[in-house]
Description:
Number of helices: 40
GO molecular function, one term: protein phosphatase activator activity
GO biological process, one term: DNA damage response
Helix content: 55-70%
Oligomer: single chain
Protein name: SMEK homolog 1
Radius of gyration: 46 Å
Family: Belongs to the SMEK family.
Pfam families: EVH1_PP4R3 (PF22972), PP4R3 (PF04802)
Amino acid sequence: MTCLVENKLLITVFFFLLYFGGGLPKSLSSVYHLFLNPLEKEKDTLIVWSEAENYDLALSFQEKAGCDEIWEKICQVQGKDPSVDITQDLVDESEEERFDDMSSPGLELPSCELSRLEEIAELVASSLPSPLRREKLALALENEGYIKKLLEIFHVCEDLENIEGLHHLYEIIKGIFLLNRTALFEVMFSEECIMDVIGCLEYDPSLSQSRKHREFLTKTAKFKEVIPISDPELKQKIHQTYRVQYIQDMVLPTPSVFEENMLSTLHSFIFFNKVEIVGMLQEDEKFLTDLFAQLTDEATDEEKRQELVNFLKEFCAFSQTLQPQNRDAFFKTLSNMGILPALEVILGMDDAQVRSAATDIFSYLVEYNPSMVREFVMQEAQQNDDDILLINLIIEHMICDTDPELGGAVLLMGLLRTLVDPENMLATANKTEKTEFLGFFYKHCMHVLTAPLLANTTEDKPSKDDFQTAQLLALILELLTFCVEHHTYHIKNYIINKDILRRVLVLMASKHAFLALCALRFKRKIIGLKDEFYNRYIMKSFLFEPVVKAFLNNGSRYNLMNSAIIEMFEFIRVEDIKSLTAHVIENYWKALEDVDYVQTFKGLKLRFEQQRERQDNPKLDSMRSILRNHRYRRDARTLEDEEEMWFNTDEDDMEDGEAVVPPSDKPKNDEDIMDPISKFMERKKLKESEEKEVLLKTNLSGRQSPSFKLSFSSGTKSNLTSQSSASNLPGSPGSPGSPGSPGSPGSVSKSTSQMAAITTKGGLVGLVDYPDDDEEDDEDEDKEETLPLSKKAKLESS
Length: 798
């Protein structure tokens, strides 16, 4: 009766999970555990229980009534009172002590007989949810040699074709795997037991027919000794690892969410087996010597060589599981055995599969130690021609990749990038790897890398513009862009001497937008260096023309090409690269002047005009540098000290009406004194009339002068140009530094006393307004008003 109720409830919960959970559970065991484990009802809508040591599960209900209904049925099966919120009985203290005491005799197993297989299977299944019971069961199985007894019964069941017994054995062996014990695995995976264990796992009760795993392992799967292995222990370890890997991948059912952590020891068993195999092969010098000898022997047939390369590839893949220290020893051993010369031979062959495997091996070596590879290729360059150098072979395979998506070429380009990256190059006291290797690379390898680019850009547009060619050229440009960013004079000399940039910009006419953008990115990287050697090369060859053409051909489309080109010109404007600014405006302004949806090109024109003004008025440029260096004013303390010295001069030392002159100057008569004053007044009147004229023109045009402080309004440009010759005179009205110059729109004449310091202060205040200038001027006026009458008289007479 209880069994019927339990099955009915099982079906109820099963359909409940199907309806509310959105899918079927992976196995009924997770539902079945719902009735075996202690449960707890929480918050009226949750039923919570533990599935394993690290897993807590819960059934969540939308309404309290549904939760209560399922809770009542669970309690009915377990014989508990539905009014309680937990179905677990209080554990007797003596029983708890017995479970905690691991030195106790442990779990008592039924005698290993055919008639008791069902009882054994139930015992194993009931022990899995509890960590303590799992531990006790594992100890019992280990101490009593129970696994071998079970395998003997397996042979009896097979002979008798007892399918029911075989199904029970499947559940028992699967449960032993879930105990996750290394000691049990060592017994099960031993040479005498492992095939019987696989045989037990062939009889899955959920399948209508048994699988033929043993037949596959013994007849179909063949063990190939590429190089004969003399060590029997090593051979046995290889067989064991293969079979255990097969059990994990093919024989055992896919573990459920609750069982994944129960197979961690199985993963570890395979991992350490691989580590042990690598170590044993590494120590066998005869084996490795024969391996590399046959790899490089021309007499070796292609099939044999392919097997050797595949073995070496798997050997290197196993090494990735080693600890760093052991991996270092592994690759040093391979290097001493001559793996790089062997790869050079293999990569020169016609077999695509062999070359592909060799490329994978090469990637392991580059990722491990790029310096080792660089040292080898520099040494071989002294003996071999450029065509058979290892790096050139890699470049050729990248160029000749037959994959439409260029998957292999992308991998090889990444390896080349690692090899030419200065960040991982060593520098010692005696030599610099960066200098030596880059010199070698640009001399022996760069022409091979750029050959497709140069061959495809002999005319004004790409000679081949199919998708695969465009992808290859994009990869080459990506590597060249990396070189521009990280290499110095090597790539600069190569680009300028080979006219690489002009050839790259031919690709701006490609129909593939990604390739045109790669070409533009290459030029943008060069301009970003702000190197005048590059700039002169660009201007001399008029290398902005392809960019401007592409910009105009793009029209009004707002896309990545449009934004990238504008950003490049904006960079030139913001960084104020004078040579490129002048070149662009002088040669391409007519094509760009109508672009008004951004202010980039008008800003470039303004930069250009300001630059021309500074060239036409060199004193203005020198005055800018003075103002920039001295913050546009003399030190206030120096002015105060000079004024104090003058005012502290004793009146008795001077006669009334006599000017104060330095001792070295000759006495001047009244005409000599009044002459410069009259000239100054004439200049002042001329300045005032010019200021009024400028103000009138500005008001008529309705425009303000540019915000840049040292530029002039549009109304004064022609005036300044016509007066450029006169501006060279310090005292001329058109001179930037003179008080009457229109180049100082903010300067005003306060008084005669202020004009005494015209070259140090008055002319400078007009260029840049400081907030505190007005305060200083007010202080000067106050100081003048408080002077004694005798001092004022002397000042006015001077």
